[in-house]
Amino acid sequence: MAGFPQVRLRRLRRTEALRSMVRETQVHLDDLIYPVFVVEGKGLRQEIASMPGVSRLSPDLLGDEIDDITSLGIRAVLLFGIPAEKDDLGSGAYDPTGVVQQAVRTIKKLAPHLVVLTDVCLCEYTSHGHCGIVADGDVDNDHTLGFLADMAVSHAEAGTDLVCPSDMMDGRVGVIREALDESGFDDVAILSYSAKYASAFYGPFREAAGSAPQFGDRRSYQMDPPNWREALREVEQDIEEGADMVMVKPALPYLDVISRVREAVDVPLAAYNVSGEYAMVKAAANQGWIEEQRAVLEVLTAIKRAGADLIITYHAREAARWLRE
Ligand code: PBG
After folding, report:
1. Where would I find the beta strands (DSSP E) of the chain?
2. 71 C-alpha vs ligand 1 centroid, how far in Å?
3. 138 lies in which domain range?
4. What's the domain count of the chain?
5. What is the distance in A from the centroid of ligand 1 to the CA of 60?
6. Whose CA is nearest to atom 14 of ligand 1?
7. Out of 86, 196, 282, 304, which one is annotated catalytic?
8. In sequence order, what DSSP letters do the residues of 99-122 get, joined into one string?
9. CA distance 321 to 308
10. If you take atom 2 of ligand 1, which residue's CA is the nearest one?
11. Cα angle 208, 281, 74; round to 5
12. Domain-located, residue 3
């Protein structure tokens, strides 16, 4: 009993109505977070060659972009800043009038209900392109922490809802939590890039942000791709230090990590469908080698099925249209 021919799994796949009744995973618009690159200056709209459909915008041009995003029903944006000038200490990152701080203020005026998340990391702001302060040719963990805390507080002052440390320095979540609380921002939440791997899939982002390291690589601070147990330690440590949500990044090559983190902890879990994952789909679709809409929805569904509650994705705008059809 309980085998073929009595059991026929195809019975419930016969029609779309039946399939939709037994569907286990559904991607919702509410799950999607759209990344936005803001570049310091005026009247700037710069297309990013390796990320078709994504541009860098100066804060004064955010109006139409934010209108489009909110009218599509997208609830949240994650901001990255590209300063006019970079220096050794990444001063643009924690400048109260810096580009992200300006963008947050603008967006909160334009669309008060849009959830604003801001990336907290020095790499877009440092001349050497590393995520922390460099001393003796190495990224100095403890010396970097205060700068990250200042950056997070300046984002909070501008009105961000969540800060998202992506630098992978040890102890940064605790230091940021303490700094936010001491400055009266106990209601600003932290989404930590807890398990962020030293991945080849960040290539297009580094073109977008001009943040490729000028010497060496990020392997001394971002995680080694073969490790998953270590990801759980990162996640647990971040939660202990005060992270409200945690993230696994990239998403597709790390679905197993997403699913193990999902089983291990109860906080909301985000996954970052990164620039290289986006570029691959776009490039293949552009060649006519895959069907873009089906591929994108399959990717997002897979990330959700693995256990992510939230998906940061450059596909969000197109996906929003398709999800509403
Ligand atoms: C900043 C940061 C990076 C990404 C998000 N935050 C780049 C990096 O670590 O080199 C990558 C996002 C993407 O590839 O879409 N540290």
Report:
1. 32-39, 45-47, 55-57, 76-82, 115-120, 134-135, 138-139, 162-165, 189-196, 245-249, 269-273, 310-313
2. 27
3. 23-324
4. 1
5. 24
6. 202
7. 196
8. HHHHHHHHHHHH-TTSEEEEEE-S
9. 21
10. 166
11. 70
12. no
For the chain (325 residues), the mean pLDDT of every run of 10, in chain order, is 92 98 97 98 96 97 97 98 96 97 98 98 96 94 97 98 97 98 98 98 93 93 98 98 98 98 98 98 98 98 98 98 91
Distance (Å) from CA 79 to ligand 1 centroid: 12
CA distance 134 to 273: 29
pTM beyond 0.90: the answer is yes
- DSSP lists the bridge partners of residue 189 as 162
**249 has catalytic annotation:** yes
116, two tokens: 């604003």
**Residue 274, both tokens:** 């990164």
Mutational test site, ligand 1, from 121, 148, 219, max ligand atoms within 8 Å of CB: 121
Question: How many Cβ atoms sit within 10 Å of the Cβ of residue 6?
Answer: 7
Task: Provide the 8-state DSSP code for 281.
Answer: H
Within a domain: residue 218? yes
Angle of helix 292-306 relative to helix 275-286, nearest 10 degrees?
Answer: 150
Q: From the CA of 209, how far away is ligand 1's center (Å)?
A: 9
Which residue's CA is the closest to the ligand 1 atom numbered 11? 202
The per-residue pLDDT for 150 is 98
Atom of ligand 1 nearest to the CA of 275: 15
Domain-embedded: residue 1: no
Distance 325 CA to ligand 1 centre (A): 31
Does 89 map to a domain?
A: yes
Provide the CATH number for the domain around residue 34: 3.20.20.70
List pocket residues of ligand 1, CB cut-off 6 Å.
119, 121, 123, 131, 166, 202, 205-206, 274-275
Q: Tell me which of 86, 249, 282, 304 is the catalytic residue.
A: 249
